[in-house]
């Protein structure tokens, strides 16, 4: 009996490691594909969509870990950030606060996607996670670019809200399906 339990735990742990790696890989694939906006140094990116999807398949700590792995890969120079860029300079630049904010987005979204089993709670978690990333990103942008709150919001938040709403809807539709599939594998 004990040996069966040990094998089950090892299988579960292996699956978690694989899923963390897959989530980080998804962020690495989605992150570089971005659309520059002429009036803002912050591009439209799919990274937060990848984080939302990861939140459904990973518990909150592991979702945060996968995001940290993504950021570490970018910090060492792999071109996983927007526009196929990487390096510490990207974190020190105008978008660095948003990148760091993604860690908290992952933790918050992961918590909501596993603590609750209602679509509206998933959406609340994604909105809260996004808000925290916006707070970190906008605060860093204001410091880094020496701009005020209103110009920063105009350049870095308001234009992104419609696209972010679409990403949340996509994740709210696909996420529960993926969550159910991963649960079957775990069983």
Descriptive keywords:
two-stranded antiparallel ribbon, globular, 5% strand, Arp2/3 complex 21 kDa subunit ARPC3, mainly alpha, 187 residues
Plain-language structure description:
This protein has 187 residues and is mainly α. It has one domain: Arp2/3 complex 21 kDa subunit ARPC3 (Orthogonal Bundle), CATH 1.10.1760. The chain is 76% helix and 5% strand. The chain contains eight helices and two strands, in the order αββααααααα. It has a two-stranded antiparallel sheet with strand order 1-2. Helix 2 runs antiparallel to helix 3, helix 2 (47-57) packs parallel to helix 8 and helix 6 (119-145) crosses helix 8. The longest helix has 29 residues, at 2-30. The model has no long low-confidence stretch (mean pLDDT 94).
Please sum up the structure shown.
The chain contains 8 helices and 2 strands, in the order αββααααααα.
Count of individual helical segments: 8
Provide the β-strand percentage band.
Answer: 5-15%
Structural class: mainly alpha
CATH classification class = Mainly Alpha
- Overall mean pLDDT stands at 94
Low-pLDDT stretches are none
Q: What's the arrangement of strands in the largest beta sheet?
A: 1-2
Order of helices and strands: HEEHHHHHHH
Count of discrete domains: 1
Terminal Cα span: 17 Å
Count of individual beta strands: 2
Give the CATH topology: Arp2/3 complex 21 kDa subunit ARPC3
What can be said about the biggest beta sheet?
2 strands, antiparallel
Radius of gyration in whole Å, from Cα?
A: 17 Å
Net shape? globular
Summarize the amount of helix as a percent range. Answer: over 70%
Based on the structure given, which CATH architecture is correct? Orthogonal Bundle
